[in-house]
Design a protein that fits this description.
This protein is α/β, with parallel strands linked by helices. The chain has one domain: TIM Barrel. It has helices at about 20-25, 30-40, 55-70, 80, 90-105, 120-125, 135-150, 165-170, 185-205, 230-245, 290-300, 315-335, 380-390, and strands at about 15-20, 70-75, 110-115, 155-160, 215-220, 220-225, 250-255, 260-265, 265-270, 305-310, 340-345, 365-370, 375.
Length: about 400
């Protein structure tokens, strides 16, 4: 088993793992995804149901992260629980997340809070979602309320999780809500998401607490094959650059990366022959992390980077360890070259609901029994925790 040099990472480096509310909590009946999962004709293979029952079992999850020896836990707030109807705020839901943040601190974990991880309340969706003229402002209002209630306990804050995925999958590929294919609508949603982020940063900074605020972005190691340069530049512009521009003045940019994408003169190319693919159909390409961290750093002119998601969907846990080992080697090379990388979060803590693909992809460090919800750490969980412990997380 490989070992990471003890002096490779800076003091205070965040070693963590991550979850998202809708993917683990269960019973999020008031958001757009719950409706989408249950609507006829959508590509969802199964509904989220009880998920991992983390709405009730979150103490066990937080304690599990701490027991591994990590020093940070990234999780998200479910907007539709906190504001199930327009202007109707659930103090109980806010208190739930406040207890979660407080427990992280008690266990020596930095709570990295994502304000929105894909889902929006049903009442927002009914008015057009991110196409609604007031959508960005309503999201900012939610961030203000959440920040007022939790800000003194937040360690780091991510406004939107992968807004580029929301716009691309929902408005180009038609496999996320609202499942349309319309370039003009996608551009409008992209602009709204960027505006929502900027407004959210202002609101979070105006409230209690003094914590870094940024955006997480799905980034890909785009590689142009002969004749594909123009198409690649266009894809990268629409999928990454416009969002990176919206991070001007942020405290960090969260890079979320899983693979590369080859682009030819006719557009996207499939996996290269001979390169293995994961359960998601991605090429096994751990070196993509290094490429995307470098690009985020260069594009933003030196904004600190946190790898807020990286991982692999596989049932072969030895493959998971090998993948992360290689990914971390790329992070160390970035650090050696003076790039300000502040942390690395493995996705995901648990085998959980993977959106349209249901429960088949296995990203987790921990297996979850679908009948009893028993958590069973895989060997990779202990291994990743040992990497974190060896870096002085305690």
């Amino acid at each position: 088993m490989s070992h990471v040099p003890a002096d490779a990472y800076p003091n205070g480096f965040l070693w963590g793992t991550a979850t998202a509310a809708h993917q683990v909590e269960g019973g999020n009946v008031h958001n757009d995804w719950w409706a989408f999962e249950h609507a006829p004709g959508t590509p969802c293979v199964e509904p989220s149901g009880d998920a991992c029952d983390s709405w009730h079992r979150w103490p066990e999850d937080v304690e599990l992260v701490a027991s591994l020896g990590l020093n940070a836990y990234r999780f998200s707030l479910e907007w539709s629980r906190i504001e199930p109807e327009d202007g109707e705020w659930s103090r109980a839901a806010l208190e739930h997340y406040r207890r979660q943040c407080a427990r992280c601190h008690e266990l020596g974990l930095v709570p990295v809070v994502t304000l929105n991880h894909f889902t929006i309340p049903g009442w927002v969706a009914a008015r057009g979602g991110w196409e609604w003229s007031e959508g960005p402002e309503r999201f900012a209002r939610f961030c203000r309320r959440a920040g007022e209630y939790l800000g003194d306990l937040v360690g780091w804050a991510c406004t939107l999780n992968e807004p580029n995925v929301v716009s691309m999958m929902g408005y180009s590929w038609g496999v996320f809500p609202p499942a349309v294919r319309d370039a003009d609508r996608r551009r409008a949603v992209t602009a709204a998401l960027c505006r929502g982020h900027v407004l959210a940063v202002e609101e979070l900074r105006a409230g209690p607490g003094a914590y870094p605020v940024g955006l997480t972005l799905s980034m890909t190691d785009y590689q142009a094959m002969p004749g594909g340069e123009e198409d690649m530049d266009g894809m990268r512009r629409d999928n990454e650059d416009v969002f990176l521009e919206a991070t001007a003045g942020d405290d960090f940019v969260g890079v979320q990366c899983y693979s590369r994408l080859r682009v030819g003169p006719e557009g996207m190319l499939g996996p290269e022959p001979g390169v293995p693919v994961t359960q998601m159909g991605y090429e096994y390409w751990p070196q993509a992390v290094e490429a995307t961290v470098r690009r985020a750093w260069e594009f933003t002119g030196g904004t600190p980077v946190v790898v807020t998601e990286n991982g692999i969907s596989t049932s072969d846990d030895t493959e998971r360890i090998a993948f992360v080992t290689d990914a971390l080697a790329g992070v160390r090379r970035c650090l050696a070259d003076g790039i300000d990388v502040r942390g690395y979060f493995y996705w995901s803590l648990l085998d959980n609901f993977e959106w349209v693909l249901g429960y088949r992809p296995r990203f987790g460090l921990v297996e979850v029994d679908p009948a009893t919800f028993e958590r069973r750490p895989k060997p990779s969980a202990g291994w990743f925790g040992s990497v974190g412990r060896s870096q002085g997380t305690r």
